[in-house]
Amino acid sequence: MTQQATTHIATIEGEYNLSNYDEIRENFDWSDAKELLSAAKTGKINAAYETIDRHVAEGYGDKIALHYMNEDEKRSYTFKEVKDQTDHYARILKEHGVTKGDRVFVFLPKTPECYIAILAAIKVGAIAGPLFEAFMEEAVRDRINDCAGTLLITDQELVKRVPKDDIPSLETILFVEDIEKEPLQPVDGDKYVEWVDWEDGLIIHYTSGSTGKPKGVLHAHRAAQHHIVTGKWVLDIKDDDVYWCTSHPGWVTGSVYGLFAPLLNRATVVIQGGRFSAENWYSLIEELGVTIWYSAPTAFRMLLSKGDLYKQFDLSSVRHVLSVGEPLNPEVIQWAWKSLNVRIHDTWWMTETGGHLIVNLPAEKIKPGSMGRPFPGVQVGILDEEGNELPRGEVGQLAVRTPWPGLMKEIWGNKDKFKSYFQYEGWYISGDLALQDEEGYVFFQGRNDDMINSAGERIGPFEVESKLIEHPAVEEAGVIGKPDELRGELVKAFITLRAGYEQSDELLEEIRLYVRKNLSAHAAPREIEVMDELPKTKISGKILRRQLKALEIERNNKVKN
Ligand code: 6R9
Q: Which domains does the chain have, with CATH numbers?
């Protein structure tokens, strides 16, 4: 593979110089990904070594690896400093008896220490278990218990949410405050690196499925191949990039694309502490000169609703923007294009897939409303209920040909759950519904269980939501099927209003008619309810349609009783 030339992009849907991309599409092979790692030459494997130490060994020790920004704090670390720090943490982990395969949990806010602790656990051959900083006691307990974590790295504040007595496997709790106090003993070379197999455990991410308990998705060191190659081609990382992924490493996006992929590609990574604020975000981009920015639709929608605020900042450093986690509404793409002068590149993948599978490569045509095309080497299928491939243009189950390097290794302690993803020979089933057009672009329709069936018509919530937020009064929308005796389900929308709009019957009717006129009569919501806030997953900000539906069903039952 050759390094891609910088391509000027004139419009969202216009013509580009695609030559390099055609080349990747035609010639790509997953073994090319392996070649990017030093393990391909040395046969010695450790993803943390590849992420940090390798760059020091190759002479890039003085390059900035991490910039940390919080309200009143700013710190930076070179690759050499991150290597020293991970060695320091690794030494302490070893002193506490951590060995290969142990589950080492990290419960810290978004700080350099969090990233360093995760890398150190991986360095010594343990399986890292990053926990989202907003988790409360029960969430912390269930996760560590599920895979019998033995050691936890946390701080004096978050430890208050660790119910030690309920976690019998937990032998040791280490505090970053103490680790930071111990004198650093820099070592040359790979003294603390545990060389492992490609199949050995790397990281475990807990993801809550549609029912009950979160499941532990275990990834192997082989995933580093997927991370490095998608970092190169999808994130488009070059040597002088300042890269900012806004997620916490407790969500797979924050570990794979906030930590591994950019650092494997030797980018300078931005870590931003504190909560979301449009002002802080824009000013961070300006101050650090962020060039690549990866975030989620919720965040982009919040920025959009702040209107012209962006005009007060110089955002001209940004050259590449990506989104993940939820459907990216065309309205948001258009807004970013017209106001921020950037194209937002959607990417689709899941905790279980370990890396990008469907993407908008930087210089390819974007079709607003579509997640993009399969990454080179990935084959997507749209399947019917029997597992047969449907023709282009039809909606069905979004599936992917197995295997690929990032694919999960197992669901911790749950073989049946693991098998349920592979019920059709040779396919991974995502649980999402989608269609693929003639050019290969994939259009998300909803989670299989979010699909609405109204009077025999199948309606995908995403399309209705996107139409709703085109209306100037609507900030965000969550659309569900409300049980209805006549139609089976009727389309119901929950919305939040943008600042300056007051709820009134006229306004809601106007919004309804807007969808009716611009989308279709059968998809226009029969009911619209205004909320102050939509319920969302804490960690990745996904709109919880299931919760909205549960609310409706509960209300319905109350009326009946
Ligand atoms: C990385 C991540 C996975 C589910 C996935 C799908 C939804 C992710 C999306 C998207 C529409 C996109 N999802 N990316 N929906 N467009 N670009 O999000 O992992 O938290 O495990 O969620 O998220 O429904 O099945 P995870």
A: 21-436 (3.40.50.12780), 453-560 (3.30.300.30)
Give the position, in ligand 1's atom list, of the atom nearest the Cα of 540: 20
Looking at residue 522, what is its pLDDT? 86
Nearest 5 degrees, angle CA 373-CA 375-CA 379?
Answer: 85
Nearest Cα to 358, choosing from 379, 389, 328? 379
Tell me which of 348, 397, 411, 462 to substitute to probe ligand 1's pocket, judged by most ligand atoms within 8 Å of the beta carbon: 348
C-alpha of residue 255 to centroid of ligand 1, in Å: 15
Report the predicted TM-score, pTM, of the whole model to 2 decimal places.
Answer: 0.91
What string of H, E and C letters represents the secondary structure of 351-406?
HHHCCCCEECCCCCCCCCCCCEEECCCCCEEEECCCCCECCCCCCEEEEEECCCCC
Determine which residue's CA is closest to atom 14 belonging to ligand 1. Answer: 325
Position in ligand 1 atom list of the atom nearest CA 251: 20
**Contact 327 CB / ligand 1 (< 6 Å):** yes
Kindly state if the Cβ of 346 falls inside 6 Å of ligand 1: yes
Chain segment 87-117, per-residue pLDDT in tens: 999 999 999 999 999 999 999 999 999 999 9
**448: alpha, beta or left, given left = phi > 0 and alpha = psi -120 to 50?**
alpha
User: Using CA atoms, how far apart are residues 434 and 75, in angstroms rounded to an integer?
Assistant: 43
* % pLDDT > 70, the chain: 95
Place of tokens 């936890």: 152
Q: What is the pLDDT of residues 165-222, one digit of tens each?
A: 999 999 999 999 999 999 999 999 999 999 999 999 999 999 975 445 789 999 999 9
ipTM over 0.90: yes
pLDDT value of residue 68? 98
Q: What does the DSSP assignment read for 256-276?
A: IIIIIHHHHTTPEEEEE-S--
List the 442-447 sheet strands across, edge first: 380-383, 396-401, 427-436, 442-447
Q: Determine the distance separating the centroid of ligand 1 and the alpha carbon of 149, expressed in angstroms.
A: 27
Backbone angles phi, psi at 466, to 5 degrees: -65, -40
Closest residue to atom 10 of ligand 1, CA basis: 326
Give 156 Cα–ligand 1 centroid separation in angstroms.
33
pLDDT tops 80 at residue 4: no
Cβ of residue 220 lying under 6 Å from some atom of ligand 1: no
Nearest to 382 by CA among 467, 340, 457, 445: 445
- 339-379: per-residue pLDDT in tens? 999 999 999 999 999 999 999 998 888 999 999 999 999 99
Please, which residues have CB within 8 angstroms of residue 100's CB and are 6 or more apart in sequence? 124, 125, 126, 194, 196, 200
How many angstroms does the Cα of residue 57 sit away from the middle of ligand 1?
36
Residue 36 CB–ligand 1 contact under 6 Å? no
137 C-beta neighbours (distance < 10 Å), count: 12
Say how many Å lie between the CA of residue 362 and the centre of ligand 1.
20
Task: Tell me how far the alpha carbon of residue 326 lies from the centroid of ligand 1, in angstroms.
Answer: 5
Within 10 Å of residue 515's Cβ, how many Cβ atoms?
Answer: 27
User: pLDDT tens across 442-451, in order?
Assistant: 999 988 888 8
